[in-house]
Structures are given as C-alpha cells and as structure tokens.
Automatic annotation (TrEMBL):
<keyword id="KW-1133">Transmembrane helix</keyword>
<dbReference type="InterPro" id="IPR029095">
    <property type="entry name" value="NarX-like_N"/>
</dbReference>
<protein>
    <recommendedName>
        <fullName>NarX-like N-terminal domain-containing protein</fullName>
    </recommendedName>
</protein>
<keyword id="KW-0472">Membrane</keyword>
<feature type="transmembrane region" description="Helical">
    <location>
        <begin position="20"/>
        <end position="39"/>
    </location>
</feature>
<feature type="domain" description="NarX-like N-terminal">
    <location>
        <begin position="43"/>
        <end position="68"/>
    </location>
</feature>
<keyword id="KW-0812">Transmembrane</keyword>
<dbReference type="Pfam" id="PF13675">
    <property type="entry name" value="PilJ"/>
</dbReference>
<dbReference type="GO" id="GO:0016020">
    <property type="term" value="C:membrane"/>
</dbReference>
C-alpha cells in the first residue's frame, strides 16, 4: 500500500515538473520570438533612416560644390 502511494506521489510530481518545464520552455520561445520581431522592425526603420541620411549627405555635398 505504501509503495503504491509513493508511486502515485512520484507520478504526480513528475507530471507537475513536466508541466512547469513545458511552460518555462514555451515562455522562453515566445520571448525570443517577440524580441526577434522587435529587433527586425527596428532594423528596418534604421535602414530607411540611413537611406534618408545618405541622400541628405549627397545633397549637402552637391550644394557645397555649387557654392564654390
């Protein structure tokens, strides 16, 4: 009887640990995916900003050439 009770407790503990592990793993995966999406959106914004800055630099160079 005692062995059955211990086995039942062990199974319950194992199930709880498995649930906790899967929840922790899922949380990590979701966090990594969200951070990757945020990083990609920021990189895309910076790419368009760098193009605008490059065009502005070219315009400045050309306007300086005109005044000389």
């Amino acid at each position: 009887m005692k062995n059955r009770a211990t086995a039942s407790v062990d199974k319950d503990t194992f199930k709880n640990l498995r649930r906790f592990y899967l929840f922790a793993l899922l949380t990590i995966v979701v966090t990594v995916l969200l951070s990757q999406l945020l990083i990609q959106s920021n990189l895309n914004r910076q790419l368009s900003d760098s193009k605008i800055i490059n065009i502005s630099g070219k315009q400045r160079m050309l306007s300086q050439k005109l005044t000389k």
